[in-house]
Amino acid sequence: MTPAALPDLATAASAVERRELSPVELVKGCLDRVAARSAALNAFIAVFDREATAQAKRAESEIQNGRYRGPLHGIPISVKDLVDVAGALTTSGSAVPPRNPTHDAPVVAHLRRAGAIIIGKTNLHEFAFGTTSEDSAYGPVRHPIDPSRSAGGSSGGAAVAIVEGMCFGSIGTDTGGSVRIPSAACGITGLKGTLGEVSCEGVVPLSETLDHVGPLTRTVTDAALLWHAMMGRPPRPPQPAESLWISTPRRYFFDVLDDDVRELMAETIRRLQKAGHTVEDVAVAHVERIADVYLHISLSEAAWYHAPLLAQYADRYTPPVRLRLEMGRYIQAEDYVRAMHARSVLRTAVDRALEGADALLLPALAIAAPPIGAASVAVGDTRHPVRALMLRLTQLFNITGHPAIALPMGIGRDGLPRGLQLVGHRGATDRLLEVARAVERQITGGAGSVGGGTG
Amino acid sequence: MDVDAWLAAALADAEARGLPELKPLLETLARSTQALRDADAEFGHPAGVGAQKDNDSDPTAEPRP
Protein backbone atom coordinates (compact mmCIF):
# COMPACT_ATOMS: atom_id res chain seq x y z
CA MET A 1 0.00 0.00 0.00
CA THR A 2 1.37 3.44 -0.96
CA PRO A 3 0.64 6.66 0.97
CA ALA A 4 -0.99 8.24 -2.10
CA ALA A 5 -3.56 5.44 -2.25
CA LEU A 6 -4.81 6.07 1.28
CA PRO A 7 -8.16 7.85 1.31
CA ASP A 8 -8.11 9.14 4.87
CA LEU A 9 -6.41 9.23 8.27
CA ALA A 10 -8.28 6.26 9.72
CA THR A 11 -7.21 4.06 6.81
CA ALA A 12 -3.61 5.23 7.17
CA ALA A 13 -3.75 4.53 10.90
CA SER A 14 -5.06 1.05 10.29
CA ALA A 15 -2.26 0.34 7.80
CA VAL A 16 0.35 1.62 10.29
CA GLU A 17 -1.10 -0.43 13.14
CA ARG A 18 -1.04 -3.58 11.01
CA ARG A 19 2.54 -2.69 9.98
CA GLU A 20 1.57 -2.71 6.31
CA LEU A 21 2.88 0.83 6.06
CA SER A 22 5.69 2.53 7.89
CA PRO A 23 5.38 6.07 9.29
CA VAL A 24 8.60 6.75 7.36
CA GLU A 25 6.87 5.94 4.07
CA LEU A 26 3.83 7.92 5.14
CA VAL A 27 5.81 11.04 5.99
CA LYS A 28 7.87 10.75 2.81
CA GLY A 29 4.71 10.47 0.74
CA CYS A 30 3.32 13.62 2.31
CA LEU A 31 6.58 15.58 2.01
CA ASP A 32 6.73 14.58 -1.67
CA ARG A 33 3.23 16.03 -2.16
CA VAL A 34 4.27 19.24 -0.36
CA ALA A 35 7.35 19.52 -2.59
CA ALA A 36 5.28 18.92 -5.72
CA ARG A 37 2.36 21.27 -5.04
CA SER A 38 2.88 23.65 -2.13
CA ALA A 39 4.78 26.34 -4.02
CA ALA A 40 2.00 26.65 -6.60
CA LEU A 41 -0.75 26.76 -3.99
CA ASN A 42 1.09 28.54 -1.13
CA ALA A 43 -0.23 25.98 1.31
CA PHE A 44 2.73 25.87 3.71
CA ILE A 45 4.81 28.58 5.38
CA ALA A 46 7.29 26.15 6.98
CA VAL A 47 8.00 22.47 6.32
CA PHE A 48 9.84 20.35 8.91
CA ASP A 49 11.41 17.76 6.57
CA ARG A 50 14.25 16.58 8.80
CA GLU A 51 12.37 16.71 12.10
CA ALA A 52 9.36 14.92 10.65
CA THR A 53 11.51 12.21 9.08
CA ALA A 54 13.38 11.70 12.35
CA GLN A 55 10.10 11.49 14.28
CA ALA A 56 8.77 9.01 11.73
CA LYS A 57 11.80 6.78 12.27
CA ARG A 58 11.22 6.90 16.05
CA ALA A 59 7.54 6.08 15.56
CA GLU A 60 8.45 3.19 13.27
CA SER A 61 10.81 1.82 15.89
CA GLU A 62 8.25 2.18 18.69
CA ILE A 63 5.57 0.40 16.66
CA GLN A 64 7.93 -2.39 15.64
CA ASN A 65 8.76 -2.85 19.32
CA GLY A 66 5.12 -3.18 20.30
CA ARG A 67 4.63 0.32 21.66
CA TYR A 68 1.78 1.42 19.38
CA ARG A 69 0.15 4.50 20.92
CA GLY A 70 -3.10 4.60 18.92
CA PRO A 71 -4.54 5.88 15.65
CA LEU A 72 -2.42 9.04 15.46
CA HIS A 73 0.87 7.23 15.96
CA GLY A 74 3.11 8.00 13.00
CA ILE A 75 0.44 10.08 11.21
CA PRO A 76 1.60 13.30 9.45
CA ILE A 77 -0.33 16.37 10.63
CA SER A 78 -0.01 20.07 9.75
CA VAL A 79 -0.57 23.02 12.07
CA LYS A 80 -1.88 26.47 11.07
CA ASP A 81 0.88 29.03 11.53
CA LEU A 82 -1.10 30.81 14.22
CA VAL A 83 -0.44 27.98 16.69
CA ASP A 84 2.84 27.66 18.59
CA VAL A 85 5.13 24.77 17.71
CA ALA A 86 8.28 24.75 19.86
CA GLY A 87 11.37 25.83 17.95
CA ALA A 88 9.48 27.21 14.95
CA LEU A 89 8.45 30.80 14.38
CA THR A 90 4.75 31.58 14.64
CA THR A 91 4.38 34.05 11.78
CA SER A 92 0.58 34.35 11.70
CA GLY A 93 1.01 34.85 7.96
CA SER A 94 2.30 38.35 8.63
CA ALA A 95 5.40 40.47 8.14
CA VAL A 96 4.90 41.73 11.70
CA PRO A 97 7.72 40.20 13.81
CA PRO A 98 6.77 36.60 14.67
CA ARG A 99 6.59 34.81 18.00
CA ASN A 100 9.47 32.44 18.71
CA PRO A 101 7.92 29.89 21.05
CA THR A 102 9.95 27.56 23.23
CA HIS A 103 6.92 25.40 24.07
CA ASP A 104 4.27 23.69 22.00
CA ALA A 105 0.73 24.97 22.37
CA PRO A 106 -1.14 22.41 24.53
CA VAL A 107 -3.10 21.25 21.50
CA VAL A 108 0.15 20.46 19.68
CA ALA A 109 1.66 18.81 22.77
CA HIS A 110 -1.41 16.56 23.07
CA LEU A 111 -1.09 15.54 19.43
CA ARG A 112 2.60 14.75 19.83
CA ARG A 113 1.85 12.60 22.89
CA ALA A 114 -0.68 10.70 20.76
CA GLY A 115 2.16 10.02 18.32
CA ALA A 116 1.25 12.50 15.57
CA ILE A 117 4.09 13.89 13.45
CA ILE A 118 3.99 17.62 12.77
CA ILE A 119 5.22 18.04 9.19
CA GLY A 120 4.86 21.80 8.88
CA LYS A 121 2.89 24.99 9.40
CA THR A 122 0.23 26.09 6.99
CA ASN A 123 -0.47 29.46 5.40
CA LEU A 124 -3.44 31.57 6.45
CA HIS A 125 -5.15 34.90 6.13
CA GLU A 126 -2.93 37.32 8.05
CA PHE A 127 -3.57 36.94 11.79
CA ALA A 128 -6.62 34.83 10.86
CA PHE A 129 -8.42 38.11 10.18
CA GLY A 130 -10.09 37.25 6.88
CA THR A 131 -12.07 34.61 5.08
CA THR A 132 -10.09 34.14 1.86
CA SER A 133 -6.44 33.51 2.88
CA GLU A 134 -5.39 35.97 0.17
CA ASP A 135 -3.92 38.62 2.48
CA SER A 136 -0.79 36.83 3.70
CA ALA A 137 2.84 37.90 3.74
CA TYR A 138 3.53 34.47 2.20
CA GLY A 139 1.25 34.94 -0.77
CA PRO A 140 -2.37 33.99 -1.31
CA VAL A 141 -3.43 30.40 -0.65
CA ARG A 142 -4.80 29.08 -3.95
CA HIS A 143 -7.68 26.70 -4.45
CA PRO A 144 -6.55 23.18 -5.44
CA ILE A 145 -9.13 22.82 -8.21
CA ASP A 146 -8.96 26.36 -9.63
CA PRO A 147 -5.82 28.26 -8.54
CA SER A 148 -7.36 31.58 -9.61
CA ARG A 149 -9.75 31.16 -6.70
CA SER A 150 -9.39 31.45 -2.95
CA ALA A 151 -9.19 28.32 -0.84
CA GLY A 152 -11.36 30.06 1.75
CA GLY A 153 -10.00 31.12 5.07
CA SER A 154 -8.57 31.88 7.31
CA SER A 155 -7.30 28.28 7.59
CA GLY A 156 -6.86 28.07 3.80
CA GLY A 157 -3.47 26.33 3.76
CA ALA A 158 -4.78 23.74 6.21
CA ALA A 159 -7.63 22.84 3.84
CA VAL A 160 -5.39 22.70 0.76
CA ALA A 161 -2.95 20.44 2.60
CA ILE A 162 -5.75 17.91 3.20
CA VAL A 163 -7.17 18.00 -0.32
CA GLU A 164 -3.71 17.64 -1.83
CA GLY A 165 -2.65 14.71 0.37
CA MET A 166 0.13 16.73 2.01
CA CYS A 167 -0.95 15.44 5.42
CA PHE A 168 -3.79 13.40 6.94
CA GLY A 169 -5.08 16.02 9.35
CA SER A 170 -4.70 19.78 9.78
CA ILE A 171 -5.12 21.91 12.86
CA GLY A 172 -6.92 25.19 12.17
CA THR A 173 -8.58 27.97 14.11
CA ASP A 174 -12.13 29.28 13.82
CA THR A 175 -13.24 32.70 15.10
CA GLY A 176 -16.13 33.29 12.69
CA GLY A 177 -15.88 30.20 10.49
CA SER A 178 -12.18 29.92 9.67
CA VAL A 179 -12.17 26.11 9.88
CA ARG A 180 -15.62 25.57 8.34
CA ILE A 181 -15.35 28.12 5.49
CA PRO A 182 -12.20 26.68 3.84
CA SER A 183 -13.48 23.17 4.48
CA ALA A 184 -16.66 23.99 2.57
CA ALA A 185 -14.76 25.82 -0.17
CA CYS A 186 -12.36 22.91 -0.67
CA GLY A 187 -14.76 19.99 -0.16
CA ILE A 188 -13.48 18.54 3.11
CA THR A 189 -14.62 18.21 6.73
CA GLY A 190 -13.94 20.88 9.39
CA LEU A 191 -14.98 20.90 13.04
CA LYS A 192 -15.07 23.46 15.81
CA GLY A 193 -16.20 22.05 19.12
CA THR A 194 -18.07 23.81 21.88
CA LEU A 195 -16.46 27.10 22.89
CA GLY A 196 -13.68 26.42 25.41
CA GLU A 197 -13.43 22.65 24.89
CA VAL A 198 -10.08 22.79 23.09
CA SER A 199 -7.41 24.99 24.65
CA CYS A 200 -6.50 28.20 22.79
CA GLU A 201 -3.35 28.63 24.91
CA GLY A 202 -0.32 29.10 22.69
CA VAL A 203 -2.51 30.32 19.83
CA VAL A 204 -2.23 33.92 18.60
CA PRO A 205 -5.66 35.31 19.46
CA LEU A 206 -7.94 37.05 17.01
CA SER A 207 -10.92 37.53 19.29
CA GLU A 208 -10.37 35.83 22.62
CA THR A 209 -14.02 35.11 23.41
CA LEU A 210 -14.82 33.84 19.89
CA ASP A 211 -11.68 31.82 19.09
CA HIS A 212 -11.81 28.03 18.69
CA VAL A 213 -9.19 25.49 17.57
CA GLY A 214 -10.37 22.59 15.43
CA PRO A 215 -9.38 19.90 12.93
CA LEU A 216 -9.71 19.82 9.13
CA THR A 217 -9.82 16.31 7.68
CA ARG A 218 -11.23 14.17 4.89
CA THR A 219 -13.92 12.46 6.97
CA VAL A 220 -15.96 12.85 10.14
CA THR A 221 -14.19 9.86 11.67
CA ASP A 222 -10.83 11.54 11.08
CA ALA A 223 -12.12 14.78 12.62
CA ALA A 224 -13.26 12.86 15.71
CA LEU A 225 -9.92 11.09 16.08
CA LEU A 226 -8.03 14.39 15.94
CA TRP A 227 -10.52 16.30 18.08
CA HIS A 228 -10.21 13.81 20.95
CA ALA A 229 -6.43 13.78 20.68
CA MET A 230 -6.30 17.60 20.67
CA MET A 231 -7.84 17.54 24.15
CA GLY A 232 -5.54 14.78 25.41
CA ARG A 233 -8.26 12.13 25.27
CA PRO A 234 -7.83 8.69 23.69
CA PRO A 235 -8.85 9.08 20.03
CA ARG A 236 -11.98 7.11 19.16
CA PRO A 237 -14.20 7.03 16.09
CA PRO A 238 -17.87 8.05 16.31
CA GLN A 239 -20.66 5.58 15.62
CA PRO A 240 -23.28 6.91 13.19
CA ALA A 241 -26.41 8.08 14.98
CA GLU A 242 -29.75 6.54 14.01
CA SER A 243 -33.26 8.01 13.62
CA LEU A 244 -32.16 11.61 13.49
CA TRP A 245 -34.35 14.64 14.15
CA ILE A 246 -32.81 17.47 12.18
CA SER A 247 -34.03 21.08 12.19
CA THR A 248 -33.35 23.44 9.29
CA PRO A 249 -33.34 27.17 10.11
CA ARG A 250 -34.43 28.49 6.71
CA ARG A 251 -35.07 32.15 7.54
CA TYR A 252 -31.82 34.12 6.99
CA PHE A 253 -29.66 30.99 6.54
CA PHE A 254 -31.32 29.99 3.23
CA ASP A 255 -32.07 33.52 2.01
CA VAL A 256 -28.83 34.23 0.09
CA LEU A 257 -27.46 31.04 -1.52
CA ASP A 258 -26.13 30.30 -4.97
CA ASP A 259 -28.22 27.89 -7.02
CA ASP A 260 -25.86 24.95 -6.52
CA VAL A 261 -25.80 25.35 -2.73
CA ARG A 262 -29.59 25.55 -2.70
CA GLU A 263 -30.02 22.47 -4.90
CA LEU A 264 -27.42 20.39 -3.05
CA MET A 265 -29.02 21.30 0.30
CA ALA A 266 -32.41 20.20 -1.04
CA GLU A 267 -30.89 16.96 -2.29
CA THR A 268 -29.23 16.35 1.09
CA ILE A 269 -32.54 16.85 2.88
CA ARG A 270 -34.28 14.48 0.44
CA ARG A 271 -31.65 11.81 1.07
CA LEU A 272 -31.93 12.16 4.84
CA GLN A 273 -35.71 11.87 4.69
CA LYS A 274 -35.51 8.89 2.35
CA ALA A 275 -33.18 7.20 4.86
CA GLY A 276 -35.86 7.60 7.53
CA HIS A 277 -34.56 10.68 9.32
CA THR A 278 -36.89 13.55 10.21
CA VAL A 279 -36.12 17.01 8.87
CA GLU A 280 -38.28 19.95 9.93
CA ASP A 281 -38.08 23.72 9.65
CA VAL A 282 -37.27 25.83 12.67
CA ALA A 283 -36.64 29.53 13.24
CA VAL A 284 -33.76 31.11 15.14
CA ALA A 285 -34.67 34.41 16.78
CA HIS A 286 -32.79 37.68 16.26
CA VAL A 287 -30.88 36.45 13.20
CA GLU A 288 -30.99 39.85 11.49
CA ARG A 289 -28.58 41.20 14.12
CA ILE A 290 -25.97 38.42 13.93
CA ALA A 291 -23.48 40.39 11.83
CA ASP A 292 -23.78 43.49 14.04
CA VAL A 293 -23.14 41.50 17.20
CA TYR A 294 -20.22 39.65 15.63
CA LEU A 295 -18.66 42.83 14.25
CA HIS A 296 -18.64 44.66 17.59
CA ILE A 297 -17.21 41.73 19.54
CA SER A 298 -14.62 40.56 17.03
CA LEU A 299 -13.32 44.00 16.04
CA SER A 300 -13.04 45.21 19.64
CA GLU A 301 -11.16 42.15 20.83
CA ALA A 302 -8.88 42.05 17.77
CA ALA A 303 -8.09 45.74 18.22
CA TRP A 304 -7.16 45.13 21.87
CA TYR A 305 -4.63 42.41 20.99
CA HIS A 306 -3.12 44.31 18.07
CA ALA A 307 -2.96 47.82 19.59
CA PRO A 308 0.68 47.54 20.75
CA LEU A 309 1.72 45.86 17.49
CA LEU A 310 0.01 48.54 15.42
CA ALA A 311 1.86 51.19 17.42
CA GLN A 312 5.18 49.76 16.26
CA TYR A 313 4.56 47.86 13.03
CA ALA A 314 1.48 49.32 11.36
CA ASP A 315 3.16 49.45 7.96
CA ARG A 316 4.00 45.73 8.06
CA TYR A 317 0.39 44.58 8.07
CA THR A 318 -1.38 43.96 4.77
CA PRO A 319 -3.51 47.07 4.16
CA PRO A 320 -6.93 45.34 4.39
CA VAL A 321 -6.10 43.68 7.72
CA ARG A 322 -4.59 46.85 9.13
CA LEU A 323 -7.67 48.87 8.20
CA ARG A 324 -10.05 46.38 9.85
CA LEU A 325 -7.95 46.44 13.01
CA GLU A 326 -7.88 50.24 12.99
CA MET A 327 -11.67 50.25 12.59
CA GLY A 328 -11.98 48.19 15.77
CA ARG A 329 -10.12 50.81 17.78
CA TYR A 330 -13.02 53.21 17.34
CA ILE A 331 -15.71 50.99 18.87
CA GLN A 332 -17.08 52.42 22.11
CA ALA A 333 -17.08 50.33 25.29
CA GLU A 334 -20.84 50.73 25.62
CA ASP A 335 -21.38 49.06 22.24
CA TYR A 336 -19.03 46.18 23.02
CA VAL A 337 -20.99 45.47 26.20
CA ARG A 338 -24.23 45.83 24.25
CA ALA A 339 -23.01 43.19 21.78
CA MET A 340 -21.95 40.88 24.62
CA HIS A 341 -25.41 41.15 26.15
CA ALA A 342 -27.02 40.40 22.78
CA ARG A 343 -24.68 37.42 22.54
CA SER A 344 -26.27 35.77 25.56
CA VAL A 345 -29.72 36.27 24.00
CA LEU A 346 -28.54 34.72 20.73
CA ARG A 347 -27.10 31.76 22.67
CA THR A 348 -30.53 31.11 24.19
CA ALA A 349 -32.14 31.50 20.76
CA VAL A 350 -29.95 28.75 19.31
CA ASP A 351 -30.54 26.55 22.37
CA ARG A 352 -34.28 26.94 21.77
CA ALA A 353 -33.99 26.16 18.07
CA LEU A 354 -32.20 22.94 19.02
CA GLU A 355 -34.83 21.82 21.55
CA GLY A 356 -35.96 18.32 20.65
CA ALA A 357 -33.55 18.10 17.72
CA ASP A 358 -30.29 16.26 17.28
CA ALA A 359 -28.78 19.09 15.23
CA LEU A 360 -29.43 22.08 13.02
CA LEU A 361 -28.72 21.57 9.31
CA LEU A 362 -27.81 24.55 7.15
CA PRO A 363 -25.27 25.44 4.46
CA ALA A 364 -21.73 26.19 5.63
CA LEU A 365 -20.97 28.62 2.81
CA ALA A 366 -23.45 30.44 0.57
CA ILE A 367 -21.22 30.30 -2.50
CA ALA A 368 -18.34 28.42 -4.09
CA ALA A 369 -14.77 29.56 -3.48
CA PRO A 370 -14.59 33.16 -4.76
CA PRO A 371 -11.97 34.47 -7.22
CA ILE A 372 -8.85 35.79 -5.51
CA GLY A 373 -9.07 39.57 -5.30
CA ALA A 374 -12.84 39.77 -5.65
CA ALA A 375 -14.38 42.36 -3.32
CA SER A 376 -17.91 41.23 -4.10
CA VAL A 377 -19.69 38.31 -5.73
CA ALA A 378 -23.09 38.03 -7.38
CA VAL A 379 -25.77 35.78 -5.95
CA GLY A 380 -28.73 35.96 -8.29
CA ASP A 381 -29.17 39.58 -9.32
CA THR A 382 -27.48 41.07 -6.26
CA ARG A 383 -23.81 41.62 -5.50
CA HIS A 384 -22.63 40.93 -1.95
CA PRO A 385 -19.34 41.81 -0.22
CA VAL A 386 -17.23 38.63 -0.12
CA ARG A 387 -16.26 38.90 3.56
CA ALA A 388 -19.80 39.39 4.83
CA LEU A 389 -21.16 36.63 2.61
CA MET A 390 -18.52 34.12 3.66
CA LEU A 391 -19.08 34.75 7.37
CA ARG A 392 -22.86 34.87 7.05
CA LEU A 393 -23.67 31.25 7.91
CA THR A 394 -20.93 30.37 10.37
CA GLN A 395 -20.28 33.36 12.68
CA LEU A 396 -23.42 32.84 14.81
CA PHE A 397 -22.01 29.65 16.31
CA ASN A 398 -18.81 31.39 17.38
CA ILE A 399 -20.98 33.98 19.10
CA THR A 400 -23.08 31.31 20.84
CA GLY A 401 -20.35 28.68 21.31
CA HIS A 402 -22.35 25.77 19.86
CA PRO A 403 -20.28 23.01 18.22
CA ALA A 404 -20.48 23.03 14.43
CA ILE A 405 -19.05 20.91 11.64
CA ALA A 406 -18.79 21.52 7.91
CA LEU A 407 -19.17 18.54 5.59
CA PRO A 408 -18.81 18.30 1.81
CA MET A 409 -22.23 17.94 0.15
CA GLY A 410 -21.29 17.71 -3.51
CA ILE A 411 -19.85 19.52 -6.50
CA GLY A 412 -21.56 22.42 -8.24
CA ARG A 413 -22.00 22.80 -12.00
CA ASP A 414 -18.85 24.94 -11.94
CA GLY A 415 -16.84 21.94 -10.73
CA LEU A 416 -16.30 23.46 -7.29
CA PRO A 417 -17.29 21.87 -3.96
CA ARG A 418 -20.13 23.06 -1.77
CA GLY A 419 -20.46 22.43 1.97
CA LEU A 420 -23.18 21.97 4.55
CA GLN A 421 -23.05 22.61 8.27
CA LEU A 422 -24.42 20.74 11.26
CA VAL A 423 -24.75 22.46 14.63
CA GLY A 424 -25.08 20.53 17.87
CA HIS A 425 -25.98 21.17 21.46
CA ARG A 426 -23.42 22.98 23.61
CA GLY A 427 -21.18 20.53 25.43
CA ALA A 428 -22.29 17.66 23.16
CA THR A 429 -19.64 17.69 20.44
CA ASP A 430 -19.39 13.89 20.61
CA ARG A 431 -23.08 13.60 19.80
CA LEU A 432 -22.65 16.10 16.93
CA LEU A 433 -19.93 13.87 15.49
CA GLU A 434 -22.27 10.88 15.64
CA VAL A 435 -24.93 12.89 13.83
CA ALA A 436 -22.36 14.09 11.28
CA ARG A 437 -21.23 10.53 10.68
CA ALA A 438 -24.81 9.54 9.84
CA VAL A 439 -25.28 12.54 7.52
CA GLU A 440 -21.93 11.93 5.84
CA ARG A 441 -23.02 8.36 5.11
CA GLN A 442 -26.07 9.67 3.22
CA ILE A 443 -23.99 12.07 1.12
CA THR A 444 -20.81 10.23 0.29
CA GLY A 445 -21.48 6.74 1.54
CA GLY A 446 -18.81 7.51 4.11
CA ALA A 447 -16.15 8.05 1.46
CA GLY A 448 -15.41 11.52 2.84
CA SER A 449 -13.79 14.30 0.88
CA VAL A 450 -15.21 15.39 -2.45
CA GLY A 451 -12.52 18.02 -2.79
CA GLY A 452 -11.04 16.51 -5.90
CA GLY A 453 -7.52 16.27 -4.54
CA THR A 454 -5.09 13.86 -5.98
CA GLY A 455 -3.50 12.83 -2.73
CA MET B 1 -22.03 59.83 22.45
CA ASP B 2 -24.63 59.32 19.76
CA VAL B 3 -23.64 57.57 16.57
CA ASP B 4 -23.63 60.67 14.36
CA ALA B 5 -21.33 62.53 16.72
CA TRP B 6 -19.16 59.45 17.12
CA LEU B 7 -18.83 59.04 13.35
CA ALA B 8 -17.87 62.67 12.84
CA ALA B 9 -15.20 62.41 15.54
CA ALA B 10 -13.91 59.10 14.22
CA LEU B 11 -13.67 60.38 10.64
CA ALA B 12 -11.80 63.47 11.78
CA ASP B 13 -9.40 61.37 13.83
CA ALA B 14 -8.79 58.93 10.98
CA GLU B 15 -8.10 61.85 8.63
CA ALA B 16 -5.68 63.39 11.15
CA ARG B 17 -3.88 60.04 11.46
CA GLY B 18 -3.43 59.83 7.70
CA LEU B 19 -5.96 57.02 7.29
CA PRO B 20 -8.61 58.42 4.94
CA GLU B 21 -9.19 54.85 3.61
CA LEU B 22 -10.99 54.18 6.90
CA LYS B 23 -13.91 56.41 5.89
CA PRO B 24 -16.11 53.75 4.19
CA LEU B 25 -15.31 51.22 6.92
CA LEU B 26 -16.25 53.65 9.69
CA GLU B 27 -19.45 54.53 7.87
CA THR B 28 -20.31 50.82 7.68
CA LEU B 29 -19.47 50.44 11.36
CA ALA B 30 -21.67 53.42 12.22
CA ARG B 31 -24.65 51.81 10.48
CA SER B 32 -23.99 48.56 12.33
CA THR B 33 -23.66 50.34 15.68
CA GLN B 34 -26.92 52.20 15.12
CA ALA B 35 -28.65 48.92 14.24
CA LEU B 36 -27.30 47.31 17.40
CA ARG B 37 -28.47 50.22 19.56
CA ASP B 38 -31.86 50.17 17.89
CA ALA B 39 -32.15 46.51 18.89
CA ASP B 40 -31.88 47.22 22.64
CA ALA B 41 -35.55 46.44 23.13
CA GLU B 42 -35.34 43.29 21.00
CA PHE B 43 -32.46 42.02 23.11
CA GLY B 44 -34.19 42.87 26.40
CA HIS B 45 -31.97 45.68 27.66
CA PRO B 46 -32.04 45.32 31.47
CA ALA B 47 -32.85 49.01 31.98
CA GLY B 48 -36.27 48.22 30.62
CA VAL B 49 -36.20 50.12 27.37
CA GLY B 50 -38.61 47.53 26.04
CA ALA B 51 -39.74 43.96 26.44
CA GLN B 52 -37.68 41.29 24.71
CA LYS B 53 -39.26 40.33 21.45
CA ASP B 54 -39.47 36.55 21.61
CA ASN B 55 -39.92 35.68 17.97
CA ASP B 56 -38.25 32.31 17.91
CA SER B 57 -41.41 30.47 17.05
CA ASP B 58 -41.76 30.12 13.32
CA PRO B 59 -45.44 30.09 12.36
CA THR B 60 -44.56 28.06 9.28
CA ALA B 61 -42.79 25.33 11.24
CA GLU B 62 -44.45 22.00 11.86
CA PRO B 63 -45.06 21.28 15.55
CA ARG B 64 -42.71 18.77 17.11
CA PRO B 65 -44.19 15.54 18.44
Biggest sheet: strand arrangement of chain A = 1-3-2-4-6-5-12-13-9-7-8
Helix content of chain B: 40-55%
Q: What would the principal axes of the Cα set say about the shape of chain A?
A: globular
Query: In angstroms, what separates the terminal alpha carbons of chain B?
Result: 50 Å
Low-confidence stretches of chain A: none
Please, what is the oligomeric state?
A: heterodimer
The largest pleated sheet of chain A is described as: 11 strands, mixed
Number of strands of chain A: 13
Q: Let me know the average pLDDT of chain A.
A: 96
Beta-strand portion of chain A reads 15-25%
The backbone outline of chain B, from C-alpha atoms, is elongated
* Largest interface, chains and sizes: A-B, 35 and 34 residues
How many H/I helices of chain A? 14
Q: Specify the helix fraction band of chain A.
A: 25-40%
Number of strands of chain B: 0
Query: Mean pLDDT across all residues of chain B, rounded?
Result: 83
**Beta-strand percentage of chain B?**
under 5%
Order of helices and strands of chain A: HHEHEHEHEHEEHEHEHHHEEEHHEEH
Which properties best describe this structure?
heterodimer, A: 455 residues, alpha/beta, eleven-stranded mixed beta sheet, two-stranded antiparallel sheet, 14 helices, 15% strand, globular, B: 65 residues, mainly alpha, disordered C terminus
